[in-house]
Design goal:
The complex is a heterodimer of chains A (182) and B (137).
Chain A lengths: L8 H23 L19 E2 L9 E2 L9 E6 L4 H15 L3 E7 L3 H11 L3 E7 L3 H6 L6 E5 L5 E6 L7 H12 L1
Parallel strand pairs in A: 3-4, 4-5
Antiparallel strand pairs in A: 1-2, 3-6, 6-7
Chain B lengths: L1 H12 L22 H11 L18 H15 L4 H12 L14 H27 L1
Helix pairs in contact in B: 2-3
The chains are: A alpha/beta (182), B mainly alpha (137).
C-alpha cells in the first residue's frame, strides 16, 4: 500500500455535493418570483428641496416648504396617463375625507389631460405640482407611478408606498400617517 | 390564411399594456451635448446606470420615458460641470446600489472578488504539493 492517505468515501462525494448545491442555488434564484420594485433609499431622510409650478389652474403648485409644518402629509406621485392611478383615486379621496392632506405631483403630464383625469376620477389633492422631466422622482428615489410618500411635519420622508393604494390598504396608510404624527 | 392575417393585424395594432405619456421627451433625452468631451463623459455614465423601469437595460439603451428623463438629468449635470461619480453617488443615495451597474467592493460583495483569488491560490498550493511530492519520491 502507498503511504498517501486514502481519501475517505465522504471526500469523494464532496465535489458532486458542491455541484448539486450550486445547481439548487441557481434553481431557487431562477424560480423565486423576482421583485420589480425599487425601494427608495430616502425613507428616513429629509425631503430634498424642490419647487414645482402648478399643474392645473384650480390648485397651487407644490414646493418642499408646502409639505413641512403642522402635520404629516401624503405626497402622491401620479399621472393622468397612468392606469393604476385612476384605480387609486377613490382611496386618496377616502384618505382626504379622513383628514389627510394629499399633495400631488403630476409626472410628464399635460394640463388638459390632467383636468380630464381629475374630472373623471375626482380631485383629492390640496396642491398639484407639475414635473415634466421626472426630476422630483429622482430626487426622492421614486421609480414609477403611482407612488405615495408619507412626509412628517419636519419634512422627513417616513414611508414609501409603491404602486396604487388598494382599498384594503387605506387603514394601513392612515396608521403610517398617525405614526408620523408622533 | 385569413385568420392568420387577422391575428397578425391584431398583434400589430394592439396597444401596449402600459400607458405612456404624451409629452415630448426631455430636452437632453435624445440630444447629445455640444461639447464632445462632456458627451463622452455623460455617455460612459449613462451606460452604467440602470433604467428603473426596464431594469435589465442601461438608461443609454432604454427608450422608457423615465430613462429619457434620467439621461436629460445626467447630461444637464455633466454640462454644469458635475463629476460623473458624484452623479452616480447621488443616485445611489436615492435608489441604492441597484441603480448602478458598476461593480463596487463593499462588505456585501467582497467575497465575489476574493473567491476566485482564493481558489487560484488553493489550486497553486495543491499543484505545488503534488509536483514537489513526486520529485522527492
Amino acid at each position: 500500500m502507498n503511504d498517501a492517505p486514502q481519501p475517505s468515501r465522504m471526500a469523494l462525494w464532496l465535489p458532486l455535493g458542491i455541484f448539486t448545491g450550486f445547481i439548487a442555488l441557481v434553481m431557487v434564484g431562477l424560480y423565486r418570483p423576482a421583485s420589480r420594485e425599487v425601494k427608495s433609499a430616502m425613507v428616513g431622510k429629509p425631503l430634498p428641496a424642490f419647487a414645482l409650478k402648478q399643474a392645473v389652474p384650480d390648485r397651487p403648485g407644490l414646493a418642499r416648504t408646502d409639505l413641512i409644518g403642522g402635520k404629516p402629509r401624503l405626497l402622491n406621485i401620479f399621472a393622468s396617463w397612468c392606469v393604476p392611478c385612476a384605480a387609486e383615486a377613490p382611496q386618496l379621496e377616502a384618505l382626504r375625507r379622513q383628514g389627510v392632506e394629499v399633495d400631488g405631483v403630476a409626472i410628464r403630464d399635460k394640463a388638459e389631460d390632467l383636468k380630464g383625469f381629475l374630472a373623471r376620477n375626482g380631485n383629492p389633492y390640496a396642491r398639484i405640482g407639475a414635473d415634466e422631466v421626472s426630476a422630483i422622482q429622482f430626487a426622492i428615489g421614486s421609480s414609477g407611478v403611482p407612488e405615495s410618500f408619507v412626509v412628517d411635519a419636519r419634512g422627513t420622508i417616513r414611508y414609501q408606498h409603491i404602486g396604487d393604494i388598494a382599498a384594503d390598504q387605506v387603514p394601513m396608510i392612515l396608521a403610517k400617517i398617525r405614526e408620523a404624527a408622533q | 390564411m385569413i385568420r392568420r392575417l387577422i391575428m397578425l393585424l391584431a398583434l400589430a395594432l394592439a396597444l401596449p399594456a402600459v400607458a405612456q405619456d404624451k409629452l415630448p421627451p426631455a430636452p437632453y433625452a435624445y440630444r447629445q451635448l455640444d461639447n464632445p468631451a462632456l458627451e463622452a463623459k455623460a455617455k460612459a455614465l449613462m451606460e452604467s446606470l440602470r433604467c428603473l423601469q426596464c431594469q435589465g437595460q442601461s438608461i443609454a439603451d432604454s427608450d422608457a420615458p423615465i430613462a429619457g428623463d434620467m439621461r436629460n438629468q445626467v447630461r444637464l449635470r455633466i454640462a454644469a460641470g458635475e463629476d460623473p461619480e458624484a452623479i452616480r453617488a447621488w443616485l445611489i443615495e436615492r435608489y441604492g446600489d441597484y441603480v448602478s451597474f458598476k461593480p463596487e467592493i463593499d462588505s456585501m460583495t467582497w467575497p465575489l472578488f476574493a473567491a476566485p483569488i482564493t481558489l487560484l491560490a488553493i489550486a497553486a498550493l495543491i499543484l505545488r504539493r503534488r509536483y514537489t511530492g513526486r520529485t522527492k519520491a
